[in-house]
Amino acid sequence: MCDLRWLIRRLTPRRLRNQMIMMAILMVIVPTISIGYIVETEGRSAVLSEKEKKLSAVVHLLNDALGDRFSDYDNLPREERIRALNAELSPITERITRAFPGVGAGYYNKALDAIITYAPSAFYQGNVGITIAADHPGRDVMGSNNPVVYSGRQVRGDILNSMIPIERQGEVIGYIWANELTEDIRQQAWKMDVRIMAVLAAGLISSLLLIVLFSRRLSANIDIITDGLSTLAQKTPTRLPDLPGELGQISRSVNALAQTLRETKTLNDLIIENAADGVIAIDRQGDVTTMNPAAEQITGYKLHELVGQSYAKLFANTQFYSPVLDTLEYGTEHVAQEVSFPGRERTLEISVTTSRIHNAHGELIGALVIFSDLTARKETQRRLAQTERLATLGELMAGVAHEVRNPLTAIRGYVQIIRQQTSLPEHQEYLSVVLNEIDSINKVIQQLLDFSRPRQSQWQQVRLNALIEETLILVQTSGIQARIAFTTEFDVSLPAIVADRELLKQVILNILINAVQAIGARGEIRIRTWQYTASQQAVMIEDNGCGIDTALQKKIFDPFFTTKASGTGLGLALSQRIINAHQGDIHVASMPGCGATFTLILPINPQGNPSE
Fold this sequence. Notes:
The protein is elongated, with a radius of gyration of 49 Å. The two termini are 69 Å apart. It has helices at residues 2-11, 16-66, 78-98, 121-124, 137-144, 182-218, 220-229, 245-263, 267-274, 293-299, 303-306, 323-330, 375-421, 425-452, 464-475, 478-483, 501-518, 571-581; strands spanning 103-109, 114-119, 148-153, 158-168, 171-181, 278-283, 288-291, 337-342, 347-358, 364-373, 459-462, 484-489, 497-500, 523-533, 536-543, 585-590, 596-603. The chain contains 18 helices and 17 strands. A five-stranded antiparallel beta sheet has the order 2-1-5-4-3. Strands 7-6-10-9-8 form a five-stranded antiparallel beta sheet. The protein has 612 residues and is of the alpha+beta class. It comes from Citrobacter enshiensis. Pfam families: HATPase_c, HisKA, PAS.
């Protein structure tokens, strides 16, 4: 029911002139079509009635002309008698059917159980002597001694057939028929329909022309008012001209009302327009009625794009559950609820408060949402918490590394002494394994120390394109080049940025090594640089390897988290720490089986760097 009302509302013209035209058209079309339908139906009935009367006249003419001739030649065998009766009666049926073009007629002899004549003989002479089927209507005519009009498929085809019994001395001795092809009847009815439709079309076109002509004259003054109304909301609106009659009263009242509204703009409107928080209002149908400039700035949508549109359409392809729509539908009011809002260009973290809107009579007319942007605050809190965790972890790792490295140094020294004092090959092999494992532990300890106490940054002018090319030389060994294709898309116009060259090289090298390890047999790694914003540059490293599971993407930057059997889980954590120290950001996008994309966002000139 609601869908029907919505469809009617959408199809109904908004302008009065168009409404007048539609109403007049409906008032003309509905009666005209009704009359045309009645005329067409009655016309078809009249055609059928006329056809039945004509066929009835033919069979009665044939009956009168037959006389007692069916009793002739009763001494002849059946086949010879049929030929003799056909020779005698064919001129009669031929003469009568010639007077009625399109009509087929003939005699049927009950005793001989055969068609005696079928005119016009030029078409139907081959049917003479045929016995009709057991379910043929002619048998009902002879059995009931009543005339029958039948429409359907018979010997001649699809026909309208009029049949009467041949009764002599109180005995039915056969029947007479006259028929006409149904297709001929349809053609005649169709010609009649065409004439009726032509007359109706001419009448409708004439009526429509008259309606349009008179509606223009009647709506001329209304157009003046509607054109003037469109300027009332402007800062310098045009006054409506004085018009005669009731329309003049309307124009003067509208002018007075517009002047009053301009002079009495409410304080609430000014407060909402200048509020720092976003405000969006929707009506009972969920369509947006207003939004303030702060809401436009936060969401990225403009007022003229959303007003009159369904608010729910903004989230049609997302999993977002709107608090204000929940308030409108169920009355649940939300206070300072934090949600992830799908803005136009990015997902926002916002705090929302919702409430229903009622008019002066307490009737529900819509809902209101007031919200503030928490995205920057949330990001700052996230980075601060991460920094605190890393600092605490760094202190712990520095202590552990110190306590472990000293015993390892002593162990390594004694193992080397033992290795020098023994000559057994198996002892040499075992001691080499011990030394290698001690070196591996020392390498992990050095990574922990680098992570806990990163070296002092050495700021300098760095060109990202050249730095990436140097890093690629370290990665592109002969074995890797044989199975992995490296493609670069560098923006040659990029200026140099202020950064720590060696630390950035370490970040890019870590990501490239991870990309190489993610590719199984063969694959591709694509590297791209571009100007991200006026003050930032971007580096994208994309591979088509195994990808990263969605559930793991939030953990890959956590220290000691790794999916590799021999990994330490410090590479990406240290990379993120380096990028954060450059006041940049690192993003990852991946789908399992579809590769991964790492994007580095770096400022051209970080704030507070020593080179300034």
